[in-house]
Amino acid sequence: MSDYPSYLTTLYGTASGSGNSLLDTIYGTGTQSAGASGQSPAQALQQAEQNQTQDVKATAAQPDVKTAIAAFTNAVNSAKSVTQLLSDPAVMNVLLTANGMSDQIGYTALATQALTSNLSDSSSLANTLSDTRWKTLAQTYNFAANGLTSIQNASAIASIANAYATAVWQKNEDSVTPGLSNALAFRSQASSITSVDQILGNMTLRTVVTTALGIPQEIAFQPLEAQEKAISSQLDVTRFQDPKFVESFLQRYLLAAGSNASSSTATTTDMTSLSVQAQGILV
After folding, report:
1. Is the pLDDT of residue 257 over 60?
2. What is the predicted pLDDT for the residue at 99?
3. Alpha-carbon distances of 145 from 80, 121, 122, rounded to whole Å
4. Mean pLDDT confidence for 167-173
5. Within its chain, how far is the Cα of 164 from the centroid?
């Protein structure tokens, strides 16, 4: 018989075997996409690094990025106090994104207290937060000691603006190769990693390492000692001094990140398709 009834095509696919069927969707035997770019993770990472300068420049010229940077620049130059500066959404958007902390945008009170901490006081907030990114950022500008002088200058503003455009570009790369922004950021920090605690205290490092090692994100709810053991039992952090090891580790991470993203997307898409197709059969 040359033509299948429509409900049989839905269940089993076409007679030639091409196309995904409802049963393929249920049992996971359908065709799988090789990825939007058609590149391997290693190729995507290499190309991103090769094209970074020109791509960041192009990103900085995008209207939304230009607007954000202009608003940041105006807010910085017009600020009369550090508190005023850090309470401005335009400042926090660019400043935190530029420093790899876009996930903290909106926590104005925390940011103000952490970034104005007295770094010489071991009990100050920046020195005691488990997320060590706050301490690093506080050290970079040291608002408590220097006030606005550390940021109200052309060099600092230009540096932050470039870092912001870079962060936006990296995030855009994730839409093609999941996890690429983290891989790029990790590579720039890898040689400075000296301890497991340093990894656990940095969201980007934590994400890359736990994903590459197959450690569930729920490990974050375990005691610190358990988290340390989960990583140290599988990884010698001194190996991050070897560029070749970093390269292979990042490839491992990108493969895992891509697999996780594909599984998540496939689950959502397949279940929607399953519902629609099933309705068609039952009508």
Report:
1. yes
2. 94
3. 16, 12, 15
4. 92
5. 14
Phi, psi of 190 (to 5 degrees): -55, -45
C-alpha–C-alpha distance, residues 64 and 54, integer Å: 18
CA dist 25 and 193 (Å) reads: 43
- Per residue in 40-87, pLDDT (tens digit) is 888 888 899 899 999 999 999 999 999 999 999 999 999 999 999 999
Q: Coil, strand, or helix at residue 19? A: coil
C-alpha span between 9 and 1 (Å, rounded):
13
- Same domain (yes/no): 184, 282: yes
Give yes or no for a contact between 46 and 151, defined as CB atoms under 8 angstroms apart. no
Asked if residues 1 and 253 have their Cβ atoms less than 8 Å apart, the reply is: no
Name the H helices within 13-153.
Answer: 22-27, 41-60, 63-78, 82-86, 89-98, 108-115, 125-128, 133-141, 143-146
User: Residue 65 corresponds to which amino acid?
Assistant: V
Domain encompassing residue 192: 178-283
Residues 156 and 58 in one domain: yes
- Which residue, 272, 260, 263, is CA-closest to 22? 272
pTM: 0.71
| pLDDT, tens digit, 9 for 90 and up, residues 34-49 | 445 567 888 888 899 8
Residues 128 and 240 in one domain: no
Q: What is the CATH number of the domain that holds 131?
A: 1.10.3700.10
